Every structure is written in C-alpha cells, then in structure tokens.
Amino acid sequence: xxxxxxxxxxxxxxxxxxxxxxxxxxxxxxxxxxxxxxxxxxxxxxxxxxxxxxxxxxxxxxxxxxxxxxxxxxxxxxxxxxxxxxxxxxxxxxxxxxxxxxxxxxxxxxxxxxxxxxxxxxxxxxxxxxxxxxxxxxxxxxxxxxxxxxxxxxxxxxxxxxxxxxxxxxxxxxxxxxxxxxxxxxxxxxxxxxxxxxxxxxxxxxxxxxxxxxxxxxxxxxxxxxxxxxxxxxxxxxxxxxxxxxxxxxxxxxxxxxxxxxxxxxxxxxxxxxxxxxxxxxxxxxxxxxxxxxxxxxxxxxxxx
Amino acid sequence: xxxxxxxxxxxxxxxxxxxxxxxxxxxxxxxxxxxxxxxxxxxxxxxxxxxxxxxxxxxxxxxxxxxxxxxxxxxxxxxxxxxxxxxxxxxxxxxxxxxxxxxxxxxxxxxxxxxxxxxxxxxxxxxxxxxxxxxxxxxxxxxxxxxxxxxxxxxxxxxxxxxxxxxxxxxxxxxxxxxxxxxxxxxxxxxxxxxxxxxxxxxxxxxxxxxxxxxxxxxxxxxxxxxxxxxxxxxxxxxxxxxxxxxxxxxxxxxxxxxxxxxxxxxxxxxxxxxxxxxxxxxxxxxxxxxxxxxxxxxxx
Amino acid sequence: xxxxxxxxxxxxxxxxxxxxxxxxxxxxxxxxxxxxxxxxxxxxxxxxxxxxxxxxxxxxxxxxxxxxxxxxxxxxxxxxxxxxxxxxxxxxxxxxxxxxxxxxxxxxxxxxxxxxxxxxxxxxxxxxxxxxxxxxxxxxxxxxxxxxxxxxxxxxxxxxxxxxxxxxxxxxxxxxxxxxxxxxxxxxxxxxxxxxxxxxxxxxxxxxxxxxxxxxxxxxxxxxxxxxxxxxxxxxxxxxxxxxxxxxxxxxxxxxxxxxxxxxxxxxxxxxxxxxxxxxxxx
Lengths: 305, 301, 283
Prior knowledge:
- The complex is a heterotrimer.
- Chain A is mainly α.
- Chain A has a domain at 79-251: MetI-like (MetI-like fold, Orthogonal Bundle).
- Chain A is built from 12 helices and no strands.
- Residues 1-8 of chain A have low confidence and may be disordered.
- Chain C contains 10 helices and 10 strands.
- Chain C has helices at 75-82, 112-118, 134-144, 152-162, 166-169, 182-194, 212-225, 238-244, 262-267, 272-278, and strands at residues 37-46, 49-59, 63-68, 92-100, 103-104, 119-122, 200-204, 230-234, 247-252, 255-261.
- Mean pLDDT of chain C is 85; it is low at 1-12 and 14-25.
- Classes of the chains: A mainly alpha, B mainly alpha, C alpha/beta.
- The interface between A and C is medium-sized, with 12 and 17 residues.
C-alpha cells in the first residue's frame, strides 16, 4: 500500500499565535472576579470618604437617629443597624432550631427514600424569589400575627424576621448536614459500643464534634439574613428606629438603600453618598461574617484530617 | 416457723438487657419533633403558594399579560415587565456565559497552582457571599454613572452578569472536570494543541453541565430585585424597551411596586405577577432538567 | 547443562555466556534502513522519582518492536517519551535525547504537537470521542489540527480500510463512535491515528482491554501494517510479543535489560533476569 505522503510535516515550527492569545483572553475572563472585588471596595470607599467629608465619624457612630432625608438631619447609623440586627436575630431564632433539627433528622434518622424527597424540597425553599416572601410576610403573616399580638403594626420586624428565617433555613440545614455527615462513623460506633443510645450519641458525641461546621452554617445564615433586602423592604417598614421592639416598623440598612434608590438622587449629593456609606457598613459586616465562617470551616477540615 | 429447707424465692431476673421503654419513646418523640421541624417550613411554603394563587385568581387573564401598568389596578398589566425581564435575561446570559465559561476554562485547563490562581479562587468564593444590593451599588456607580450607560438594559445586564458570575464559574468547572483524562490524552496524541482539544473535545462533552448551570443561574436571576432597583430600573413603565440603551422594568420590580401600594386591588395584581414569575422559573428549571437529560444521553460512554 | 538446540520458548535454557551484553543493538530493518527512532541515555521522572534510568535503544524502520517487562518497569513511560506525551502529566520531566530520523525531538524549538502528527499513539482503553460519529472520529485528528481536507469520504474509507474496520461500519458511519464493540472501538482509534498518516505508531497495551477474538483481529491488523509503518508495541503478554514482533526489548525497574530479535530473546536470552521473566519466575 503506497503512502500518500500528502501530509509531510516539518517538526520545527513557532508556536501558533492563536494559542497564546487564547490563553490571555481566558486569563482576562478569570481576572474579572478580582476586578469586581476591587471595584466594589473602590466604589464603596470612594463615596464613603466623600460622605465623611460632610459628616463626622462621631456623628455617624454616636447619634441614635438617622434622618438624612429630612430637613432636620441626623446621621447616626445605629437605627439602621438595630433594624438589621433585630430582623436577623428573629430570622436565626426561627431558622437555627428548625434547621438544625432538620439536619439531624436528614443525616442520622431518615431513611434513604425520605432523604431523597426532603432534601430537594428544602432546596426549593431557597429558590423562591425574595419578593414573593416579602409579599407573603406583608399580606399573610402580618394579619395572622395581628390576631395574636394586638399592638402589631402593619409593617413590623417580626413578620419579616420569621419569613426571613424560613428563607435561610435551607442554608443552615444543608451546611449543618454536611458538618454532621463529616463526623467519622468510627466515632459513632465507639459510642454505640460503649452502650450509648442513638439520642445520647447524637447529642453528646456527634453534635459536639460537628460544632465548628454547624457554627459556620449559622454564621453564613446570619450573613445572608443581614444582606437580605426585599423581604424587609416590603414587610418591615421604612422608619429607622433605634429600638428592639419587633412589633413596630423599623428600617434595615438594605431597605434604606432601596428607599433612596427609588427616588431621584443626583450624583454628588450627600443623600447619594449616604447609600454608599450604609452600603460600606453592610459590606464590612457581611465580609467579617463570611471570613469568620470560612475560618471555622477550615478548622473543621483540619480536624477531620 | 421459717421454712429453711426450700430455696429462697427467686426474684425476677433483671439483667438490664431489655430496652427501656423510656429510651425508645424518647427516640420516637425526638424523631417526631425533627420531622415537625422540617414539615413546618414546607407546610408554610405550601400555604404561601396556595395563598398567592388564591389572591391572584381574579386578575389572572390574558389581558393581564398583555397590558401595560396603569393607575387603575384592574387595567394594569405586566406586559412591560415581562418583556423587560426577557430582554434582560437574554442580555445577561450573553455577557455572563462567555466570561464565566472563559474563567472556568482558564482555571481548569490553563492555570498553574500558585498565588495568582489562589487569589482568583478566593475572590470567586467571596463574591458568592456578597449581598446582591452591593452589586447594585457597584453597578450604579460604575455602569450607570462612570460608564454612562444610564439606567439601561445594558447596565442592568452587566450588573446581573457580575452577580451570576461565581455561580456560573463554579458550575462550569464542575462540568469541565467530568471529562476523563483519557479523552484529553487521545486528543493530544493526535497532535492537537491545547485550545483545539478544549474546543473540540472537552467543551462538547461538558456542555450539558455548563448549560444546566447557566439556566439555573438565570432562574435565580429572574427573581433578583435589589440590584435592579439600585441601578434605577423604573417602576412605572408604559413602553417596551427597544434597544439595550433604553430604560426598562422587570417582573420582580413591578411586583414590588404593586405590593408597596396601599390599595388592596394592587395587591391582587402583585399576586398575579408572582404567579407569572413563578411560572417562568418553573419553566426554566424544567428546561434545565430536560436539557441535561437529553444531552447526557448522547454522551454516555 | 548442555545448551538445548530447540528454539521453543519456555524451555530452561542456559546459553553459553556471550562476550558482551547487547544493550545498544543497532537493528537493521528489513530494507536495510537506519533506525527510525533512537533513544540515548533517556531518563524520565515523575516528580522526584525516576521511572526510566538511562535507556538507550534503537527502533528499526518498518516492522514491529515489542517492549515487555513486569508492571512498573517503565515500558509505558518509555513509549510515551517517544512522542513527548510523558511531559503532559503535571510534574513529569525528561532528560536525554530521542532521535527521530536523526533529529533530537527534545531539542529546543521542536514543537511536540507537530511531532505527534508523525508519531501516533493508541492507548490501552479504546477512547473514541463520544460526541462524534464514526466518521467524525476518523477525521478528528485532522480537524483537531485545523487541517482542511479535500476528499473527506476517500480519506475516511482509506483510514478505515487500513484499520480493518471498513467492511463492518461502511453502512453506519454516522453512528456514534461509542456504539461499537470494544474491539471495533480500538480499531477505530487505530484508524483515527492512521488517518494522519504518521510514520510511527506507538501502541500502549492495545489489546489488554479486549477479548481474545478482538485481540486476534488487532494482531492481524498489526501484521498488515508493519509493511508500511514503524510500530512499537508495549505488551505484558509475552506470547503476543512472540507472535507479532520482529524485535523485542525487555525492561526491568526502569532499565533496558536486553534487546534482540524476538526469537533470539525468547530462546537464548543473555541476561538471567530476562530468562527469569520469560520462564515465569516472576511476573
């Protein structure tokens, strides 16, 4: 069989330019993430610095009233922070027990079939758009709660907090379940061999071992609650209030940003800068929470190794 | 007189091996509590859906889908928002897919383990945890103001694309990893270059995973409100956007606008809007599942 | 013990000691051509561990050379150095030279991608591309290289005929590449490599994943191809080497122990380690 010899190829050749170019283009795509982070920090810092040219740090951190849009202006961040903390605390109070118990059930007590059905259903909870949850909190939860709590305002922190709790429940449940699952089987078997029952093993052995992982799950849940916008914008109110009363309207940091954005705020004005100052505070809070959660998770990984 | 000849009566053997009824019932009670803990939120979800459907019933009609918003609740429709959302999703996908897939290919196929790669990965995982409204602030300053895009579809799409980027990169990386090493080696052995191998062997095989990840991210993006409000998407729009530089509105924004109005009639509209929104999400998720099943069949080896 | 005159393998034979161990044989091909491939002091590393320790070996043009040895002896690594596939693995390194038609392929400026178009490779597990049809698989090598092909149908037929697969698939070229049986898939991979018209075909245990019938077909194919191509085949099956190869090299723990014409190596091996391996004292 004669060889066709049509494809004689020389060995020495420069590397095609195309290959190098592609590598660079792809690298730029990957760098977008770094640029985004840098952009976020730069933008927030820039406008916050502008804000602090007009407002002193003392006013920001010392005043307990926040009225930058009124004639009589106060610049204390605390009402917004308390609004955020209050709603998030209520959310965690709902999501932590339910989520943790759910996680224990899914990883320790459920059979395969139940698990296969329940896990995806829980994920559905996380997939519902937050406007829908906000609608639910305003039109369904609040009226029902008003029957039991006479003084409940139509916008209040409680309804929003409860519904937010349902929204973050899958986060806590799923991450706690991972943490519990990571507890080595040998530990459980040791406990059984020592005569401990299932419940005692769960509470005395498994949960304490999974503590760091569960802690990380809770912190991430808090982080999500802190950053949540629509549920609180719809159901919690737009009245910044430095109080811990969940039955009254409040305003969270996120809802304030929405409030200002809905209006017409020209660039460069102090009102425009306030949303970035608040945004910066929000960013710092969630960043701190996320880093804390990551550290806890690293500890879990090291422990399991 | 004490009977000393017969052995003393035996007590019932209590070896302690029998399961205590208290232990078992405690476990059963705990199991019930846990199930309740799971059932409660799921039940609430069901209640939510039923409630929304019930509220929306009077307003759900073809005219709802084809009318513009109006000051009269009975006439207000969701057409502008529906179209706006559709355009927005298409534009967002057009931006996010190349960048996200490109980043994933770079990280999986080109990057060497080192400080730079670690930095990129750290950034991606951090960005996943940033609240969506912060992306809105970024978009407002950079896209709307600095880059002069105005409160346009383009600005909205760029902002949403950045928001979806971590999700798309992670899903695409997973998909790329499923391609076995042996196939890459076969391609190299045929004298193919790096990019050629990626383009003709790796990408076609990882397509189902990538597409699924993209569609699921879009299903999430469809419900995002906060970043769009922040960059200035309008809440009362009586026209359809004609170009990427036009102002726009989106479904969640319209819903938010209606919910915020005191009149009860608008709450009905909000409910109807929610039903349409959820229907769109269901369709997207369904498409993702169907697409994955179909493409996966081609690939099994 | 007197030397047995019969050449049957598996007999315990002690040949009279040879004056020098033929480590660097310069085999002459049947047409008297110089060696196609020549390794000189080739060393290969996976990170810090050395998989090949200074191998020097010449492969004749046209004809079949078999590489045998126990697992982990470096035979796959050696062959993968011949088309610069070894360095694809992260952390892998090579030192020494391999001369292909007199040109050192490890010299600076040599493009491994181009080398692989002239030195093809077939792997142990058949790996047709699952997203492509049979036809597209055959053309894959050309498409992956960005080469324009003028007479696609002719090329596909020629490659499949060379791969002894044409008659079986000529009516179903558009079926998926993975819909074939194991043996057919392997022949498809061979056809795919042959479509690029390489000069050398490296085969890394091509029949290990195949049943005996498929193996026989592939061995028959090798027998046809040896007229036109230089073939290097790695095999852990000594009988296969005896059946198909003109020359055989025995590797042990990263070193080339012995290299000779096949029937000589199997009947009168000069190194005791070769003899032990052939007689099954270790596997």
